[in-house]
Amino acid sequence: MSFLWNAWYCAGLSHDLGQEPLAVKILEQPLVLYRTDDGTPSCLHDRCAHRFAPLSMGKVCGDNIQCPYHGLQFGSDGICKRNPWGNHHIPINAKVRRFPVIERDMLLWVWMGDPERACAEDVLDLAAHFNLPHHPVVYGSYSLPVYYELVTDNLLDLSHGIYLHAGSLTNGEESSGELQVDVQVEGNVVAALHRRLNEAPSPHFKKSWTRSERIDHHSDMYWHAPCNLVHDVGVTAPGRPAEEGIYLHVVHLLTPVSMSETKYHWIASRNFDIEDESVSKALQGAINHAFTQEDEPMIAAVQERMGTTDLMSLRPVLLVGDAAGMRARRLLDRLRREETVPPAVADSHVQGYSIDHIQQTM
Amino acid sequence: MSFLWNAWYCAGLSHDLGQEPLAVKILEQPLVLYRTDDGTPSCLHDRCAHRFAPLSMGKVCGDNIQCPYHGLQFGSDGICKRNPWGNHHIPINAKVRRFPVIERDMLLWVWMGDPERACAEDVLDLAAHFNLPHHPVVYGSYSLPVYYELVTDNLLDLSHGIYLHAGSLTNGEESSGELQVDVQVEGNVVAALHRRLNEAPSPHFKKSWTRSERIDHHSDMYWHAPCNLVHDVGVTAPGRPAEEGIYLHVVHLLTPVSMSETKYHWIASRNFDIEDESVSKALQGAINHAFTQEDEPMIAAVQERMGTTDLMSLRPVLLVGDAAGMRARRLLDRLRREETVPPAVADSHVQGYSIDHIQQTM
Amino acid sequence: MSFLWNAWYCAGLSHDLGQEPLAVKILEQPLVLYRTDDGTPSCLHDRCAHRFAPLSMGKVCGDNIQCPYHGLQFGSDGICKRNPWGNHHIPINAKVRRFPVIERDMLLWVWMGDPERACAEDVLDLAAHFNLPHHPVVYGSYSLPVYYELVTDNLLDLSHGIYLHAGSLTNGEESSGELQVDVQVEGNVVAALHRRLNEAPSPHFKKSWTRSERIDHHSDMYWHAPCNLVHDVGVTAPGRPAEEGIYLHVVHLLTPVSMSETKYHWIASRNFDIEDESVSKALQGAINHAFTQEDEPMIAAVQERMGTTDLMSLRPVLLVGDAAGMRARRLLDRLRREETVPPAVADSHVQGYSIDHIQQTM
Ligand code: FES
Ligand code: FES
Ligand code: FES
């Protein structure tokens, strides 16, 4: 179990970050996000260089963030801009690590690796999902007590739907059509394209779909390494293209907090009942229910059974539904092997001074 | 601190296991018990061979139990009987460990060691205790945050009664007769036979005993390795045999959950006031009170003081009341030394296949 | 991170110890304090020599304390005085470690190191603080989830006041005068003398000070190794001596419970509004608020950010306000290096007997 450092991770939705500093933890690093005077988001290590107070407990002063303990101020570049004490001289090592941050499509993204390698073009492009006119949006966030790859496994193998979500998201084993899965790998993306043909519409589409009794159902999941997923799910009349039907665009953004905790943000837009607020509410409620009452307890129970042991060393039986998940794991393993831990993580403190030196200079 | 594997452990009372699967943990192994169509109890490792979901969260389907995550079904022998996916082929390694289970005298017993060595005759025989006509039965269960040998120590040294249970189970130090203890070892049984002669009856016998003012009190504890105890306790007129008096038959069944947790089931039958429901209630209440308010806090405090250090390495002062407990510890030490960890525990996964093999066959 | 063993630590206020035994934990050692017949406090290891029950759950019997589990009694010297069992012989190793204890100036002090080296004269002398006529006293106690040196750092660097206590104990950054700090080291005492000249009185002095609009403010902190602090804080008319003004004498007594927990007792006396109970209440409330709502969350957050890493190995930036804290750390480091762990701690059990020996003698 490990992390990929050179990657963009979702730190929250844009509206999570207002005037107040926001504390998040990603890859075990405590981070603070804040907006400078012109609203640009900044991200710093959430640990003052002086006595290690959380900057997130402090306050924003123009373009700087002020430490709540003794008042040092740090800029967006992580360098101390104000020392209120003594001769106001700013010590050379008075700086904290900065993390590149990008705000796009309702989302905040933080680069956890070597800042030199951060490239805005690598941020997941969701314009096609959320910048569509007349596509109302609902969303939610959870904290899960699990390692992030177990959530990826859950999302890439939707065969669990007819068991775990029987009666909520699906009609259960009895009334469902046969599941066809097509798995494709392209670059750092693994796609799992699920089809069920000529079946009754599932509970959350039934009310909105009146054009035919039977439907074709598609659920296409695109995993982007390391752990963000784009999901197209919908129904259409049997034999007709998906575009003619009703559908949801969903993104599932997984952010590893630690080896045993994952933050999960999701956003869903739709092309049906777009004026109907009650459909938005029902959809959000259904997703919340399925996730918090069905998926989360199951993934947490699996985590508890697996402990800190790596999946493959437990020698799981593999079923046909595991194809996409196994390819994503193999791809992520390769990416992690290929990267060296970025110097900025290893070297987060200024080197080469000793207690004696400190005490002489005081 | 360690466990004896080749032994029967109490997994609960018969009525704990109905139509629904029952999750228990014994010797750190998560187990699921369920009843097949004809009511026979089965016991499997509570961890699906596919992605390690707890089978206990699933449902019973005839003689099988169905995994709640992706629907594999396993039989009483632990072998997968149904794969709902793909060509329905059942992978060779789709099996979970099974544990021999026996239901007898109101109780469920699970064999944690090598299944080949499980022998029904080794199950503690309680017919003489609970199959008696007109002996009403009360019972209870607790989860204790302690290593199981500390509970054994408590039960084998009843000298603690006049201090810890003063005013509840005993009359305390002042009004009690002298305690005589006789310790006997036979096979895997250690007996601690406690007598107090010619004293006032203790609180919970006082109301039911009207035949004499003074009584002889006996409390005979038989420890059966590794951690189940049979207990005869009663009063009779001074100098008369115990059979003429009133008495309780109690069993104390300790089941190690982990190195720091013990499940404790007890059952008590009696030969007095047998029609009187209020006596049953009072008895159950008195035992519950003594155990949860007096014994458990003390044993938990002892555990906290000892930490994970073995008793003998702390060099305890030994008193006369320790004789039975020390013999039980010595006997159990020998049994644990003599057994090798059973192959079924060490080898709970199918050996000899690699990631590459998996990925080729998918 | 480590402890100084040869030192007196505050175990509580005198009135905390009545007729009942009192359990405290100091330097990870569980201790029991009790008063003998004539009221003298005793302190023993809170772990019976028999089966390690906490003596603090037992009761005081004259000059002894009786174990709650099987009734052994121990005297103030830690030696067993009564064995109620068998032939009443007292085993040679039936003893627990005793800790020297001194009661003085409302406080209980325990010596954690080699008893031979305990010297009453080394106890912090607070007579000048609390034996003054007409100086009403208020006090409080907290348990902090932090390593004790972080609390020392907090108290020795009062520059945090204008940020962390803005609006409660201070007027904040804007309306405060310039802070002058003078640091002095003498023997095992480090003094941090803080002055702010010609400023508005801070909130908790404002109501009681009517003699001038502007004041000089002093706050003199005297750290006595290892972790007790005497604090003089007050206001006076500009340019006038402190004695003419109003002031508080405060002691801050830090007692390390473990590497990650500290007990904090404080006592404050004052020379103003001495008849006015409402001033006592307000003062106690203000100190409680500042400590529990402002200091404690900050120190706990710092601890969380630092984990178990030593401060200096994290290479903190040092500011002018760190001068006293760094000198205290250096002094304490030297004291800890100079002491060997006292034999009484290393050798807390009787040596040289084996299981075989025990079992032969039983
Ligand atoms: S801890 Fe940030 S200024 Fe002191
Ligand atoms: S985890 Fe049991 S079938 Fe998938
Ligand atoms: S534990 Fe103290 S007398 Fe037994």
Concise account of the structure shown:
Chain A is α+β, with helices and mostly antiparallel strands and 362 residues long. Chain A has helices at 127-130, 148-156, 161-164, 203-206, 277-306, 323-338, 343-346, 355-361, and strands at 8-13, 22-26, 29-35, 41-45, 59-61, 64-66, 73-74, 80-82, 101-104, 107-111, 137-144, 179-186, 189-199, 215-224, 228-236, 246-258, 261-270.
Can you describe this structure?
Three copies of one chain form a homotrimer. The first copy, chain A, has two domains: 111 residues, Rieske [2Fe-2S] iron-sulphur domain (Rieske Iron-sulfur Protein), CATH 2.102.10.10; 215 residues, Alpha-Beta Complex (Naphthalene 1,2-dioxygenase Alpha Subunit, Chain A, domain 1), CATH 3.90.380.10. Helix content of chain A is 22%, strand content 31%. The first copy, chain A, has eight helices and 17 strands. In chain A, helix 2 runs antiparallel to helix 6. The longest helix of chain A is centred in the C-terminal third of the chain and has 30 residues. Chain A starts with 7 loop residues before the first strand and ends with a helix. The C terminus of chain A is likely disordered. Chains in contact: A-B, A-C, B-C. Chains A and C meet through helix 8 of A and helix 3, helix 5 and helix 6 of C. The structure holds FE2/S2 (inorganic) cluster (3 copies). The site of one FE2/S2 (inorganic) cluster has 9 residues of chain C, from loops. Chains A, B, C: Keywords: 2Fe-2S, Iron, Iron-sulfur, Metal-binding, Monooxygenase, Oxidoreductase. Chains A, B, C: Its EC number is 1.14.14.-.
